[in-house]
Design brief:
- Helices cover 11% and strands 49% of the residues.
- The chain is mostly beta strands.
- It has one domain: Immunoglobulin-like (Sandwich).
- The strands form 3 sheets. A 5-stranded mixed sheet has the order 1-8-5-2-3, with no helix packed on it. A 3-stranded mixed sheet has the order 4-10-9, with no helix packed on it. A two-stranded antiparallel ribbon has the order 6-7.
- Strand 2 and strand 3 form a beta hairpin.
- The longest helix is centred in the N-terminal third of the chain and has 13 residues.
- InterPro entries: CcO_II-like_C, Copper_CuA, Cupredoxin, EfeO_Cupredoxin, NosZ/Cyto_c_oxidase_sub2.
- Its main location: other.
- This is Heme/copper-type cytochrome/quinol oxidases subunit 2.
Length: 123
């Protein structure tokens, strides 16, 4: 019985420090430059809303929810992560190709949820 309780606690806590990595990281050059970006999520906005990175960069987004549970989705990179209420999540991807990649909240957070989005510009 104790082992089941411990297992449930471990599973519950593992969602508090979610890390989602893009599959392209596996083929990323070992010496790719790293760009860390801190973001916040709150009803109904991401800050910053527009992120600019250089092509060939290993991007690490550290996202903090300032209020309720949010989601973060970048379809082109196959990224879908939950940001717990007043918690954090880390997203990593390799900005291999130039372009504009939209992101959005993927966890319903209220009436303005569908306008909670932004974009990553890879130059």
């Amino acid at each position: 019985m104790k082992s089941i309780i411990v297992l449930v606690i471990v599973i519950a806590l593992s969602g508090c420090a979610a890390v989602k990595k893009d599959k392209a990281l596996e083929s990323m050059p070992y010496d790719a430059p790293v760009q860390k970006i801190s973001m916040t999520a709150k009803r109904f906005e991401f800050t910053p809303e527009v992120i600019q990175v250089k092509q060939g960069t290993h991007v690490i987004l550290e996202i903090e929810s300032l209020d309720v549970t949010h989601g973060f989705k970048i379809e082109q990179y196959g990224i879908l992560v939950t940001i717990p209420e007043k918690g954090r999540a880390t997203v990593e991807f390799y900005a291999k190709e130039p372009g504009t990649y939209p992101f959005q909240c993927s966890h319903f957070c209220g009436a303005g949820h569908f306008g909670m989005n932004g974009k990553i510009v890879v130059e």
